[in-house]
Amino acid sequence: MKCPYCGNLGDKVVDSRESREGDVIRRRRQCLNAECLRRFTSYERIDEIPYMVVKKDGTRERFERQKLIGGLLKACEKRPVSATAVEDVADRVEAVLQERSEKEISTREIGALVMQELKKLDQVAYVRFASVYRDFRDVDDFVQEARALRGSKE
Question: How many other CB atoms sit within 10 Å of the CB of residue 27?
Answer without folding.
Answer: 16
